[in-house]
Design brief:
mainly alpha, 70% helix, globular, single chain, 208 residues
Length: 208
């Protein structure tokens, strides 16, 4: 397996593991805890914010390990794809995104301010990465990256600058999921895209 296909495999696994890890952690979270996808942030699966932080096992371990693994896989994929494309405009935000995931996995929600810092890094760099992927992929997937990245960043801006408009409609938890899931879906799709590239072709043949 060449390095580019390995990069695609790592990204596909990172996105899949992140999604299934969140689903599994939510399924195992205690039903009487008050956790809902409307009110609760995804990171509450690892630990709720202080004071009086709540940590429920095995959900916390599943979530934290999932984020750590996804981040490390994405970081490795960033290195391998950069050796092929050499596009810093894409590689830098993707690398920052992977570091953000690693930080979230290490510093759960009760670890302030570190968790918030890494979450912010993940949110912003994830959206930027999706948009910047137009530098390495061709249509129609490049348009998917632009749209999904824009959805994520617009949602983040709405939470920061106009929370009274969005949050009451789908809740804090729903809003965060509109921020996170487009990036998870995009990075999974990007993995599939990279695994399908024939490296014997020139970059121009891929319209990159």
């Amino acid at each position: 397996m060449n390095k580019l296909k390995l990069s695609g495999l790592l990204l596909f696994l990172a996105g899949s593991i992140a999604l299934m890890g969140i689903i599994t952690a939510e399924a195992l979270y205690p039903s009487g805890s008050g956790y809902t996808t409307f009110h609760s942030e995804i990171s509450d699966l690892g630990a709720t914010k202080p004071p009086n932080s709540l940590i429920y096992q095995p959900s916390a371990s599943i979530f934290n390990v999932t984020m750590l693994l996804s981040g490390l896989m994405t970081l490795m994929a960033t290195f391998y794809q950069h050796k092929y494309f050499k596009k810093l405009l894409f590689s830098i935000p993707l690398g920052l995104f992977s570091l953000g995931l690693v930080g979230i996995g290490i510093f759960s929600g009760d670890k302030v301010p570190y968790h918030g810092i890494f979450s912010l890094l993940t949110f912003i760099s994830g959206g930027v990465s999706a948009i910047a992927s137009f530098k390495i992929v061709s249509a129609p997937f490049k348009f998917i990256g632009i749209v999904f990245g824009a959805i994520s960043l617009i949602t983040w801006c709405a939470v920061v600058f106009a929370p009274n408009i969005v949050v009451p409609f789908i809740g804090l938890g729903g809003t965060e999921r509109w921020l996170v899931y487009p990036i998870v879906l995009w990075i999974t799709g990007l993995g599939g895209y990279l695994m399908n590239i024939t490296t014997t072709k020139k970059l121009g043949d891929q319209h990159l």
